[in-house]
Amino acid sequence: MIHRDTIQLTAIAAAALLLTACATTGTTGSSSPSGAPTAQAAPAPANAASAAPGQPGASSPMTAPRPAADPSAPKPFAEVSRDAKRDDGLFPILRKEEKVWLEIPRAMLNKPFLFTINISSSIGERGFYASQMGPEIMAEWRRIGNTIQLVALNTEFRAEGGGKRAGEEAFSPSLLAAGPVASADHPERKAFLVDAGMLLSDIPGMSTRLEMAYRLPYNVDRGNSYFELTRADEKLTTLNAKVHYFTPRIPAPPLVAPPVPVPTPPQATPDPRSMFMGFVYNFRALPEEKMSPRRADGRLGHFTETFTDLSDDLKANPRVHYINRWRLEKKDPAAALSEPVEPITYWMDKNIPPKYRPAVEAGILEWNKAFEKIGFKNAVVAKQQPDDADWDNMDASHASIRWFVGSDVGFAIGPSHVDPRTGEILDADIGMSDVFARGGRAFISEDAPRGLAGAPVSTLAEEAQALAALNHGWREGRNATYCTYAHDAAAEMDFALDVLEARGDIAPDSPEADAFIQARIKDVIMHEVGHTLGLKHNFKASTQVTQAQLKDKAWTDANGLSASVMDYNAYNIPLQGEAPTTYNNTTLGAYDYWAIEYAYKQVPKEQEEAELKRIASQNTQPGHAYADDTDAGGFGPFDGMDPTINRFDLGDDPMAYFRKRLKLTQELWARVQNRAPEATDDPLRQRRQLANGFSQLARASDLVGKYVGGMYTHRDVPGASVPAMRPVDPAKQREALRFLAQGIFSADSFRFKPEFLTSITTDYVEFNRAGFVNIPAAVARVQLGSLDRLMQAQTAIRLMELPAYVPVSQRKGLISIGEVYGTLQSSIWSELKTGGDIDPLRRNLQREYLRRIQANLTKSGAASGQFADAYAVLRLHAVQLQSDLRAAQGKGSLETRAHLAESLDFLSTVLKATMVRT
């Protein structure tokens, strides 16, 4: 028996001999690829393998040296996680003080999940707002040696069979974040830790968007970024990060104004060099069982998950479009009416003011009417987030209605996140700004009236640019939609309240006025919930209601003002002396029921294709007309050629609606001018009422112009009985031209009493809210919308193509481009025939006309291509105008004579330039 002390002494002696050997022979070192030295064990004696035990050179099991530990190897799991608090879930979270780790099971490597980013807090201006859904992507963890990668998978191009490998080789994934593995594997769970700090970087690409908005280079400050909250469950792991962005310095403003205006630095932060943004990172498990996808049909409007299928080359168009929809299944498939296995639940944000919660809830639950029609009871559920809740409804497991504020914000947005494999909606967070909570009126008074001072009307275009990039995620064409309905609906509400208050039909701050606001909130929530159910805008729905039905209160109370809440629906304001009717849209329309049926009707798999075709073929039924944002135009190359597809009109005759709005605006302005201001009034009251009228006319001006050279369109399958497009009737086109000439282009439409104009005040406490009124700038905004449309190339090309769309026997009486240009020119320059003085407002309009003549005649390529004939006709009219200007020289007041001389000189220069160039 050997005593324990003897063994210890033997081991000590062996260690001493080993140290002596090391000192004698030395150690060698080598360099890793990065240049860092790596330790190597000392070489053993050459005869070590053959020496007998106990002889020199022999190795004893008690004394054999252990290989030196690799310093680059991860530390043991237990050592790294000691004293850390653990939260189990899809990817368990471990926290110790400020350190946060994610536990990655090896079984989850290379297994796809949905990675999403939401914006919980922001800076409150220029498109950067809280409560916004951000990008989504299907991602996976990849381990390369001791490096962990978060990789975004490329789902834009897919293939099965032989084409799968070729597709994977052709189209690269993207790296979102990477970092070193933080621990060795857990011995039982076969999982390792990674530092979650790799997420505290600019994964959302916010620095680029900040540079777009402010033209300043902002970077992430990793040292001052941190995780606020974390939570995990079986299907979801969520980390709330607060990321600090900074720029070292704000450059001094230029001494001379640059040719292109430079945006100001951030105005809503205490120090424009520094800002925090809150991101909610969600790792969500994809459903183990894929939902059965449903193909889109162009006769209805649903958001889609779109990809290119490269499985074979037999299809002319390899693009595939799956509609976005929630997974909704009956508990009892055989029952005519059944509750769903899992309802679509919306959590109402605790920030929603209590007095508006009933209206928000009503807007959510209104959709149950459509689901009940296809056999679902209580398919949509509304729940209120408790005021003391410590969980964030921006995580990926709570669809929500979020209430947010900003310094220049007035919109709502209805995005959602989907399973890219099938189009299944997994999460949705509606963002609703407080534009209504502030009565709408305050916001509009600070925003829209800037047009009266000649400044930009609003920042909505900038918001659209920033939020479009944000919500489209890393792929173009995602299912988010930028929706200005809340802002525009608030403007509509203000106009309606102004008219009714001026008449004495409703009192400011009365229960009736509050009911107006509540009804509009319900309407906007219905609209945005519709987006999160998968429905796109429908800007043709309003034309499915007749003018007579709009005047029938019993009919509008029961059926609403439009065939869809997905339209931008205007207020139904009666003319003076007409009977009151339903003012606001309050219920779903026929189109909404139809679109929900196509997306959610439960049908046996073997019958689905036939049943969906049957449902979609109902597109010619009353109330089922559909057209989306592209059809309405107003952005990019889409100018909107169908005058029945508009944002904010009412009834089957948009022209009649626009005429009515002109009369209502003139009534409002007359009443405002006859009302003596009171000392207790908001300083901007009169200014706001002026602006609300100008906003109505600006919209009407542009939309009326769509009739000229317009085409009625109809969505259907090839070979349908209804033509896909047909020209607008010539009589309707001429009616539009007369409306513009006699109403919009007439200075008499914008006459105001001097006593009224001199009484308009500004806010002397907050002078920067609004300067003094600039009527010419506001009038120009109204007139130039239609002028631009009438003189644009697309309108000219369609006018020249009209005869090709009409049988020869019916071409008599068609409107021509020569008639349009001639009518426009004679209307704008009518004073040249009468010899009278030219009003300042008219002089402004005439100058703008000449500028457009210049642009069309001198731009490169104008005299060739499709525009060549239009160029020739326009130039012919310009030559005639030159002759008329010569004949009118020396007539009228000094200002008129100066204007005519300057106009002649300008036009002659333009014509000479084009002649030389040609």
UniProtKB/TrEMBL annotation:
PROSITE patterns: PROKAR_LIPOPROTEIN
Bias (Low complexity) ranges: 26-61
Residue intervals of the DUF5118 domain: 74-120
DUF5117 domain ranges (all copies): 133-331
EcxA zinc-binding domain segment(s): 511-833
Protein name: Metallopeptidase
Signal peptide stretch: 1-23
Keyword set includes Mitochondrion: no
UniProt region (Disordered), positions on chain: 26-81
Organism: Roseateles chitinivorans
This protein's UniProt keywords: Signal
